[in-house]
Each structure stands twice: as structure tokens, then as C-alpha cells.
Amino acid sequence: MKIGSLELGKLPLFLAPMEDVTYKSFRYMCKKFGADVMYTEFISSEALIRNVEKTKRKMTLFEFDRPVAIQIYGSDVDNMARAAEVAAEFQPDFIDINFGCPMKKIAMKGSGAGLLRDIPKMVKMAESVVKAVDIPVTAKTRLGWDDTDKPIVDVAERLQDVGIKALAIHGRTRKQLYTGWADWTLIGEVKNNQRMHIPIIGNGDINGPEKAKEFYEQTGVDALMIGRGAIGRPWIFKEVKHFFETGEILEAPLVSEIVGNVKEQLTQSVNWKDDNRRAILEMRRHFAKYFPALRDFRSLKIELLQATELEHVMEILDRIALKYDGIKVDYTNVSLK
């Protein structure tokens, strides 16, 4: 698979861009376990052209990230083009346009999935961004706005026609948010449309290696993108690759192994931010997902989510490893919701 001239090999695995999730330390862990392509958290075009420092920090890239994209979103065509020019200065391998975020504060203001209600504007925006930079531009979107409006086959053709080099499709509508089930049928229709020649990346409900293979065999997509399934389980990329290569499921990790990975991610966050409290707060979404289905875990989980001092967090993690010594974590029935 290629994005422009960027060679990514056969069936690469992408880590989906997620706000307040795909920051440096989490990207580091996913890369360690085999994710092939990274994205930043999504970047507001308005904040970017106003030179907001917090926004620009999100675009700090590291060598371990590569290949990596900066994802931008916005509702104004000209501002998106200007934002792409600024983003390109940070030297990503490609720029991605967010046409898929379903959250009310984004979509209802005409950004993200909100552009699915104005396809001509979406296409114009994509064309403007493509013309603004000298690196490949990709896009991520959804099937459509709701069950009565799923124009993804036509949208994919039109985005390709204005220069989009690859398209990631989440198999839900905007109205679904993250409820129900992802529908990969239409993703397959896009991939197998004779007019399409750019890579199609499938996304939605990949919660383990067997689902990954099922969706790939159903659609023949060029790449798979994993989002929520990687939160609290960055080794899912290793599990998927192992299953595709051998047909075997890797053994579930021991709690002690998970504790080691949590500590490594937290240490990365602390070292990067140089602010223990901020790093711990940032990790809480991950803490909540790292130890699913453990018996009698509720009190330890609450304590972990409430801790604000690094030494206390590390001590709680040590107690978790001790209490569940020799226990493996089964992810079979873990929900992505």
C-alpha cells in the first residue's frame, strides 16, 4: 500500500487519531507493539492559524512516530488550507482531514462529520488543502449523516477526484456516534468500486485479531485502523499481526506484564510533560481500560483513578501486580463502549 510515494507495505495497521488519547506516550506504546502508522490528536484549524501554543504542541513529532500524519479539522475552507500550510512546517509524512468526528461541539459547527451534510463544501475543502501543500493529503470520514443518508460511495469518488491520496472510513453514521455496530458492507463497496484506485482504510469495532481478519476478508481493504480497541491494550497491533501471520491467538498478558506497560506509558508521559500531575490526569482514561474483567478490582480501580501523586500511582500499580500475581487478563468479551 502507498500513500503518494510513501510505501507502507501490505495491510499496514493504523492507530486512529483520537482526541485526548493519541498523544506522545500512547503513540509510543502502540508503535512498540507494532502499529505501522500514527496520527496526532486532531488539530483545530482556527487555533492553528491563531498560533495557539497548546495546539502547536500537539503537532510535535518524534522519530518513533514515523510514518505519521497531522490531522486537522475546521469549517472554513480558506482557514483549512492555511492550517495545512502551517501543519506541513512540522514535517509530517502526510496531512489528514477530519471529516468524521461526530461529537456535537464539532459536527454541529460544520466541522468533522458535520461536513457530511454539505458534500460540495467537503470536496471543495479537500481540494483546497491538497493544493495548499506539497505532501500527500488523506481524509477520514463516516458512512454518512444517518441511516437515510449514507453517500460514502459517491463521497469517496469525489474526494479521490480532487487529489485525496487515501481514505479512512469509519463504518458508522454521524447519528450513531459510537453506538450500535460498525457496518463494513459499505466500506467494502467503496473498496471494490471499479472507479476507486486510492487505498481504502477500514475502521470500526476492531476489538481483537479475529475481528480484524473477518473485516479484512469481508472487504479486502488496503489497511486496518484501530481506535478504541487499542486503549488499554496497545499490544492489540502485535496480536493482530501474529494472527494474520500464524492463524494463532497470542496468549493473554499477565497482569504483571500490563502493570509494566502502564508504568512505561506513565513514565513516558511524565518525562515528556515534565509535570507529574498533568501526566497522571492524562493517563486516567487509559487506567480505566487497562485492567478489564478483574475480580474484586473496583476499589483498586477507584483508588487508581483518584490518585494524583506519581509515587502513589506507582504504589497502587505494584499492589495490583501483587494481588493478581500469575493472573491473565481475558479481553474476549471486553466492550469498546
Q: CATH H level of the largest domain: which superfamily?
A: Aldolase class I
CATH architecture of the largest domain: Alpha-Beta Barrel
Terminal Cα separation, in Å? 31 Å
In percent, how much strand structure appears in the residues?
A: 5-15%
CATH topology of the largest domain: TIM Barrel
Spans of at least 5 consecutive residues whose pLDDT stays below 50 are: none
What structural category characterises the helix and strand content?
A: alpha/beta
Order of helices and strands: EEEHEEHHEHEHHEHEHEHEHHHHH
Number of strands: 11
Q: What is the overall silhouette?
A: globular
Total individual domains: 2
Number of H- or I-type helical stretches:
14
Question: What's the pLDDT, averaged over the residues?
Answer: 93
CATH class annotation of the largest domain = Alpha Beta
> Which assembly state applies to the chains in this document?
single chain
CA-atom Rg in angstroms: 20 Å
Largest sheet: 9 strands, parallel
Helix content: 40-55%
Short recap of the structure:
With 337 residues, this protein is of the alpha/beta class. It is 43% helix and 14% strand. It has helices at residues 24-32, 45-49, 53-57, 77-88, 104-107, 119-132, 152-161, 185-191, 209-219, 236-246, 255-273, 276-290, 298-306, 310-323, and strands at residues 2-3, 6-7, 13-15, 38-39, 43-44, 68-73, 94-99, 137-144, 167-173, 200-203, 223-226.
